[in-house]
Specification:
single chain, about 150 residues, Aminopeptidase, 7-stranded mixed β-sheet
Length: about 150
């Protein structure tokens, strides 16, 4: 598998992210859906990576700078047919390494509380993320789980 910075200009990644946003909107109420669309992911301060296996898009993830020391993990997604095949672990390890290289000392994330998100929460726990209070512009929400880790 290859992980590369993606400029978000291709139609394949646009479809992949649209599927992600639509899925998140179907699972979570509108006020609890924090998935970024293509335009939001193109904003300054966000680095986006795609994961390909033999040229096929199998995953993606992003890092959003919150301040000089703190970044947020965004848009983690694995292609449905590739879930539990190591894509997310490989990508998360890459993003953590890149966050350190960029000088961040803390990495946080928001994910859902419904059972659908349980595999994601377990993955984040495996990588040292622990529950935390809402950060940045987030507010307490029964549909959101907030996690963080020091780098």
């Amino acid at each position: 598998m290859q992980i590369a910075t993606d400029d978000l200009s291709g139609p394949e990644i646009a479809r992949f992210l649209d599927e992600h946003v639509q899925q998140m909107r179907a699972i979570s109420p509108p006020e609890s859906t924090h998935a970024l669309d293509l335009d939001a992911l193109r904003r300054p301060g966000i680095t986006f990576w795609s994961v390909r296996d033999d040229g096929v898009l199998v995953g993606c993830g992003a890092l959003k700078q919150l301040d000089a020391d703190h970044a947020e993990l965004k848009s983690m997604r694995t292609a449905p047919l590739r879930k539990r095949s190591g894509v997310a672990s490989l990508l998360l390890e890459h993003i953590i390494t890149e966050a350190r290289r960029m000088g961040f000392t803390r990495l946080s994330l928001e994910t859902g509380t419904p059972d659908f998100f349980l595999p994601a929460r377990k993955l984040y726990e495996k990588f040292g993320f622990v529950p935390c209070e809402p950060f940045a512009d987030y507010r307490p929400d029964p549909n959101s789980a907030f996690m963080t880790r020091e780098l």
